[in-house]
Model the fold of this input.
Amino acid sequence: MLFYPNEKLALFIDGANLYGAAKGLQFDIDYKRLLELFARKGTLVRAFYYTAVAEDQEFSPLRPLVDWLDYNGFAVVTKPLKEFTDAQGRRRVKGNMDIELAIDVMEMAASVDHIVIFSGDGDFRKLVEAVQRKGRRVSVVSTIRTQPPMVADELRRQADNFIELDDLKAQIAREGGGKAGFAQTA
Done:
């Protein structure tokens, strides 16, 4: 990982995407350890976490994580899951947070030197390119070690740094069954 100690950082975590990548690598993320790791890399200005939540359920398994993140240094951005019926008549849910993440990245680009995006979504390639034109460095955290890889090749190529999530496992994996740091369960 190439970070400079005097640079200002902002983290942008696509919750569903990071969860899927970590699950594919067979570990749970300890978000407290993740925050501490990147706080040691530079001046951490903000850490955003994006997720859609089911608001009509009495209890969502995501709610304890969202609450914990909110109280422990993360700026949590949520929106309700949308239910729809697909062409085959099946009930589906959708909760894409790409626009929210992209807008926040563009707004924060003026205040930081280095943006770290936790997602492998190829839709973010153009966003990365736009932020780089503003003179900001961009790192992407995802994985190529799952089958299929969780990061789009075009996003990986566009980023200044690609950070393999599996290489961070020893530093950010949740240990044991304790609640410290929470693991996302979705």
